[in-house]
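From: lab user (bench 3)
To: helpdesk
Subject: output format question, protein + adenosine-5'-diphosphate

Hello, I'm new to running complex predictions and I'm not sure whether the block I got back is the full result or only part of it. Here's what I submitted:
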Amino acid sequence: MVEIPSSDSLLRRNELLSQEIRRRVDQLSALNTVAASVSQSLDLQATLQTALQAVLRVILVDSAGISLVDEAASELVLRAQHGWHHDFVSQPMRVPLGRGMSGFVVANDEVLVTGDLTGDPRLAVPEFADEGVQAMALVPMHARGRVVGILSVMNHQPYEFADDEIRVLRAIADQVGVALDNARLYENTKEQSSRLEAILNSTGDAIIATDNHGHISLINATAEQLFDLRRAEIIGLPLRHAPLHPKLSAGLRRAMSAGESADTIFEVPLEDGRFLSAIVSPVYAHQEPESDRQAEGWVMVVQDVTHLRKAEQARVNFIRDAAHDLRNPLGVTLNALSLLSEELGASGSAAEIIDIGLQGLNRMQVLIDSLLNLEHIESGVGLQCKDLDVRDLIERCVADIRPSIIQRGQTLRVEVPDTLPLIQGDMHWMYRALINLLSNAHKYTPAGGAIAVCAYVQDDDLFVEVKDNGPGIPPEAQTRLFERFYRVPGPDQDIKGTGLGLAIVKTVVEQHGGRVFVQSKVGQGSIFGMALPLSSRREDRRARAS
Ligand code: ADP
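Helpdesk reply: Thanks, we reran it on our side. This is the complete output you should expect:
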């Protein structure tokens, strides 16, 4: 026979059921509250408080607390409390790791529940006894698979913790663990970024960075001052709209479009007589293998090098004067020694000594001639600009350098389109410039290396570049390469040279209204190039057409 429950007992059962459902809903909502706080707030203290209040809403005990492991001090430190008689957070309660009940929880990664603490010898902190706690549950808190703290709930009366309450405590404890991890990461990142900002703002170099879409993402205090910009107005702006000096913007854009293989260095003479030196480098955020890397953005570092240029100018003037003064006596001495050598004939120790003297004097003459050449080009006197076919120029230089290249087992590739617009140039001087670049590539690239010369048109310029896979040049030396007498310190200094070749290239190219540039990476090679303007030629054509 089936017993039909009375309506009273049905009602009672329903009520119990709905109470249980409400309890579970409350538990879930407490968990959701903590989860939401963890994902929305990076304020650790606020999240700890939210967690404690949520706990006390669903577990009907008197108080709760959160202690965190301080690994450096080997202690467990109370960081948040709710419903306690005494303040144990302002002067935090500290329990040495390994001691008492909390020590057991941390060491064994286990929940510890006690229904009645009266006289329990495991209490590690005597002051805690004043709280008059009888029942307690301690739950380990995890982050990245390790115990990082304890969530504790306490009651002044004996209390039976239900299994589902312990499960909720565990879940909340782990949510707090995630919050801890987030907060720690956030604090670290904040600290690093403020340290970086302090460094960026205390450097005397102007720094501007862009993201990979070419939008300005950073500008430091020196850049604000140097370019008279306001950070708030320029951050996020596409680079082409930034009110930078047009030559700087153009250089930066050129470097960005040239690819990500190396740094680009260029110098900008300003209308007010100042000189800026800029280096543009790709920024890589991840440590990926070089072949897979993609630039996350670009950074341009600009230095005001006016004082260096002035000092260089003084040095140049001095050397020029000295070269002038030395030329005549040197010529006389050379002639005299040559005559003496003829007199003495080709053999004998005196003839040998004179020969050594003659070799030294000849080297000195090459040096002085180069210096005077430089002065000659700088003055612009005698520069005869006519229609110049760069294909012709390259052909002549390649024909002259190829025998030496073959002799060293190197290869020389020529990449020139079938037609190129003519430029206005002086073949004699342009030959000097290009042959210098080619002979440097030949000199500094080891035997068997690969050299290439190419020409192409981009925007209003005709580019001529000489590439090699030689030793490359460190960034700090790249800024000085075009200075007179500068030679990169290191083993290559044993290779014969005067340190004037690139200065001649720069002067010749600038006399043609162009600019020189270098891209180089140590161990990979170098690209030396010149950009020669086509605009005058175009204006010429336009004038003739009209
Ligand atoms: P020189 O070759 O007479 O020393 P340059 O002015 O032509 O003088 O070059 C200056 C310095 O630049 C050289 O001493 C060398 O250290 C470096 N250099 C020039 N071209 C290259 C290159 N293609 N590869 C590596 N280093 C180079």
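A quick orientation on your result: The longest helix spans residues 163-202. Let us know if anything else is unclear.
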